[in-house]
Amino acid sequence: MSRGKGLSARVRHELRDRQGITTILHYLLLDASDTQLAEGSVEITPDADVHVGRTLLEVPMKTVQEHRVWGVMLEIGEVVVLRWRLELRDASGTMLARKTIACEYRAPF
Q1: Model confidence, pTM
Q2: Residue 60: is the preceding peptide bond cis (ω within 30°)?
Q3: By the 8 A CB rule, do 86 and 60 touch?
Q4: How many whole angstroms separate alpha carbon 12 and alpha carbon 9?
Q5: What is the radius of gyration, based on Cα positions, of the chain?
Q6: What is the DSSP letter of 101?
Q7: Rounded Cα gap, residues 64 and 73, in angstroms
Q8: What single string gives the DSSP state of each residue in 11-78?
């Protein structure tokens, strides 16, 4: 995973032996107190036995800018550390992989 422009993340994934089987990339954007700021899911359906791809996860910048604590910190020039929690699951909800990555943000994004 790498940080993208604004409040986004680029996720590189490699799936093996899942051709035609829907896989779900679920994400949470969390603050330092584990409060959920954003959540979403993206369906990935591999078209080969080995599927390598990239997915861009985007959250509106106003999610943090309008937050009563993090928005003020950004306005005064402080760094805000947020965490992306990523999970790969199959269609039945079985966890295939999980990763959490911290990213620093400061205004302007």
Answers
A1: 0.85
A2: no
A3: no
A4: 10
A5: 15
A6: E
A7: 10
A8: EEEEEES-TT--EEEEEEEE-TT--EEEEEEEEE--SSSEEEEEEEEE--THHHHTSTTHHHHHHTT-
> What's the token pair of residue 87?
């999970």
Give the C-alpha separation, 80 to 87, whole Å: 23
pLDDT tens, residue by residue, 43-88: 999 999 999 999 999 999 899 988 999 999 999 999 999 999 999 9
Return the H-helix or E-strand segment holding 27. Answer: strand 23-30
For 36-39, the CB contacts below 8 A with 24+ separation are 37/63, 37/64, 37/67, 37/82, 38/63
Helices (H), 1-109: 62-65, 70-75
